[in-house]
Structures are given as structure tokens and as C-alpha cells.
Fold each of these.
Amino acid sequence: MSFGLYALGFAILIGGLAYGAFLMHMPAHWIVVGAIVLAGLGIVKAVTTTREKDPRV
């Protein structure tokens, strides 16, 4: 559940930044590149933040 909320929030952030870049008349290919990079960063950050500790054996 926590991962889903984190991912949803990051998706909203990416959408807002992409829309802002669109309004600033940035080329579409750079908007896509930025969105892909941010999506990858968001996935890595969400996994490391919400991952549970491994139990000690």
C-alpha cells in the first residue's frame, strides 16, 4: 500500500513537471526523456523507501 501511494505521488509530480515544461514550449522529446528519467528515479526511491528490512536468521 505504501509503495502504491509513493508511486502515485511521484506520478503526479512527473505529470506536473511535464505539463510545466510543455507550457514553457520545451521540445516534446526532451519532455519524454525527462519523464522517463524521473520515473526510473521514482521507482528506485520508492523501492528503497518502502522496502522492509530482511529478518535476521
Amino acid sequence: MKKYVVTVNGNRYEVEVDEVKGDFSSSAHVAAPVEKQVSPKPAATPKAAPKAGEKIEAPMPGTILKVNVKEGDSFKAGDVLFILEAMKMENEIKAQKDGKVVQVITSPSSQVNTGDALAVIE
């Protein structure tokens, strides 16, 4: 049995695969029943745990194209903090109020889902 990590629609799953031996060239071969089907468990993602503060979350699933801030940066309401590509469109994620970046959780090329934390601000 071999273990693999597979990513499907941005979700990581740990799977185990059994090697099947035999000649499968015959069209009359009938597969043996599998013992039981188990729902895959998502593998642990190596994202940093968010620090305390207000989180800026992804408004929709997509890919982070650009991160315009780093930890310690101050910003004003309306500043573009991230560029998120979703459905082949670039979406600006803007600050809703003035603040300071405590932690940047995402990076360019990261796949995010709706509600994923992108940064922590104060």
C-alpha cells in the first residue's frame, strides 16, 4: 500500500492505494469488490495559525495574484491589499478602514476558498 497526497479543487487529501497484480488485458476480467469506501480526510495544510486581531477574508474562491502589504504596514481605507483572480477576473480586495497589518497569511499563487483568512489587521 502506498500513501499519496492529492489536491482536488484546492483541497488536499491523503489517500492510500493498493497495488493490484494480474493481467488486465482481458476484457472479461471482473474487478473484485472493495472492502469499504471511506471518505477522504483533508490533509493538514501548512498555513500559519492566525494571530489575534481582525481577519481580512477571501470574499470568493480563487487564486491570490498579488499581495500589496507586508507585516507592519499601515494602510488607509480603500487601499488595495490583495488581488484575487476568480473566474478569469482580477478582483481588488480593499481595506474597509484604516489599520495596520499584524500578519499576512496568504501568498501569491495560493488557492483560497470563501472565508479563508488572508491577513490579520488591527
Amino acid sequence: MWLASVPIETIASIMGHESAEMTLQYIGVNLGDQCRAFEAVQKMRVQMQKTAENVPLLTVPET
């Protein structure tokens, strides 16, 4: 279910867990790791955008 993007709270409820944290222990997912991964992707996106801003546009000569 987790891999199918079902919210962790929904999974916890279905499994009868008292908290989403307990469900995460069984899934083996750490929210901190997820946050760090998201932040890394965001940093790459910003770097790529800065690089793209410095690339000159190709001009086509008039015929």
C-alpha cells in the first residue's frame, strides 16, 4: 500500500496500529530519510535551474 502512495495514516488505521510511527517501523521507512531525499532533489532542481539560466539561447540566422 505504501508503494502505491496510500497515506501512512490510512495504512496505520487498516493495520490497527495506534500511530503512523508504528506503521513506519514495519515498513522500514524513516520520515527523516524521506525529508532529506526530498531536500536533495530540491537542491538539484535549483542548481539545474541556475545552470539553465546561464546557457545562452540558440539563435537561428535569418535566411
Amino acid sequence: MEVIINKEDSVTTVRLIGRLDTPASQDVAQSFEPLMSDAGGTTVLDCSEMSYISSSGLRIFLSMRKAAASQGGKVIVKSISDDIRQVFMMTGFLNLFEIQ
């Protein structure tokens, strides 16, 4: 799993490339730690190149949402595949995130 972070002004874009499975989630969580401490702006999670998300990955998304909400920021999930959309729908995450 590759994570590419790009910050411009108050918008941080996070490109997630590959499978966000349980083993990868530990490294991804470490990549997200600085984002969570500075989540007052808009964070866009670009999932156009993410092929899979596990429950551990969903937990990271939820932690990011909570961090942003506590700091007055917001999280947008962008370009999810049909398979990941199905997971979001089954878990109720479609109602928690702004999906683009």
C-alpha cells in the first residue's frame, strides 16, 4: 500500500494506492498520524487507486473523520470503486462521509 500526501493551503489530498488490508493498515495509520493532529481543514481521501479496504482500513477512515470533526475540519472520500462502495454501504460509512 502506498500513501501519497499533498497539502495545498487548507486542503490535504491523500492518495491511497493498492490494498488497505490489515497488514498495510499499521503503516497507513502511522502515515495518518500527522494528518490527524492537523485536521482543521479539508482532507480528501482519493481512493481511485485503492482496490480493497479491510475493517482495519475502515477504522483509519473513521479515526480521521473524528479527528477532523473535533478540529472543525471535514473529510471527503473521493473516487471509490463499486466494490468499496458496497463495503461502505454495508457498514454505514456512506452516511458518515461526503463521497465524491
